[in-house]
Amino acid sequence: MSLAKKAISGTLWMSGISYIGFAVNFGIQLILVRLLAPEDFGLFALGLSIAEMLFIFFSFSFSMGVIQIQESTDLFDTAFYLSLISGFVILVIGGIVSLIISSFYSLPSVIAFFSLCALQPLQGCMSIYSASMEKELRFKQNAIVRGISTNLSGFGSILLAYMGFGVWSLVGREVITAFLMFIGMRLFSSYRFGKNFNRVTAKKLIDFGYKNAFLKGLGDSLS
Asked: Under a CB-based contact definition with an 8 Å cutoff, are residues 76 and 128 in contact?
């Protein structure tokens, strides 16, 4: 298949699965609204909003750098290391912030916030596997993994909500999504971590990451 056909086919797959996922997610949300109390959504939304404010300052998007930067020595391994380190930095800072805000916010919101921070190392590594698939124009497999992970986690949250876990069913949804995405991307990606690190490549990725984080933070503040 030619490069153009691969790109068109991949775009169609990603668009199609995205539309299907939107419809399925809409149905899942309707069910969750019936199973959960309004305060459950409020508690989770509070934790999520605090996490997103933290992520603005650490959204280096090394996976985007992998896609846009020309191939260099140990590009993927270096990005993998940086994504993992960035994830653990968020985890540590998230733990400190959790201790600070625990005196001002309810425990479920604080735990939801910390859980989202704790998933960042895993999501950072997953993003590199995903980027390798995108760079190889394997959009079909990428879209399928995302669609399955999102929908299965949604059904999992319904099951948890039905069993009476309340706000934890929403936290569980994020956890299930992260693990399924990591496993799926790792399974279908041709990239395998080689434990190599290149300082020159790391500098390029960090420079790209800082610029991307600044632009993203500026855009979020203006929106």
From this structure: yes
